[in-house]
Design goal:
Layout lengths: L19 E5 L11 H7 L5 E8 L5 E3 L4 E2 L2 E2 L14 H8 L4 E5 L13 H8 L6 E4 L2 H10 L4 E6 L5 H11 L3 E4 L7 H8 L3 E4 L5 H10 L3 E4 L2 H10 L3
Parallel strand pairs: 1-2, 1-11, 2-6, 6-7, 7-8, 8-9, 9-10, 10-11
Antiparallel strand pairs: 2-3, 4-5
Amino acid sequence: MRSTEEPRLSTRTTLPGTTAVVGHRGNPAAYPDNSIDGILHARSVADMVEIDVRATADGVLVLSHDPSTDGRIVIEHAADDLPDLARFERLLELVGTFPLNIEIKNSPQDPDFDPTFDTAMRIADRARPGDLVTCFHWPTVDAIRGAYPDLATGLLVDRGWDLDGALVAASERGHRAIAPHWTLVTDPASIMTAAGDVAINVWTVNDDDLARRLIHGGVSGIITDDPARMRQLVEEADI
């Protein structure tokens, strides 16, 4: 289904201008990565949850950061053979309207790389109003943007990449967010000024001092392994 509403970062009562808390793969401080329990629990402390989605050999969409699990390559096994991986469709049934940052795993270095973007399109088709779809492989996100112009999309930016170039690319291509590695965000306030309407969601932030600097710099969102602690730091910030 196509997203037809303007994206919102949160269903919580977050004050305008307040940095949003994004649970990295749910709430890994207390639950396994990409587990449904962790994602559902994170709703009580986070504004959004980031998840990783791949496809199995039989086309089932599952949550998995890595291309393999327990020594088995996800794309080479049927979903029933990978019982530890949560299913994306099941998560959507349970999570309600709570927004998700859906990271599509589509790296040319991985065994499940799909240059046709068929899997990416299947994932994007299931995104709901309020969700954000991202990927490190920018051509994948560009293709989704072209097919689903009403869907909120974002570019992931790894350490060592060109942050200014990512901002330009996002703005020119109509993406609504970028998610840079924290090492790239040396001057949060300046970056936010340069970003304009593009949201800046910084990953993965678990250090209190770094978090405070980003919060006071006004970044749009912080992606963290401990959303409960990050929520506390956001609420303590005197901005």
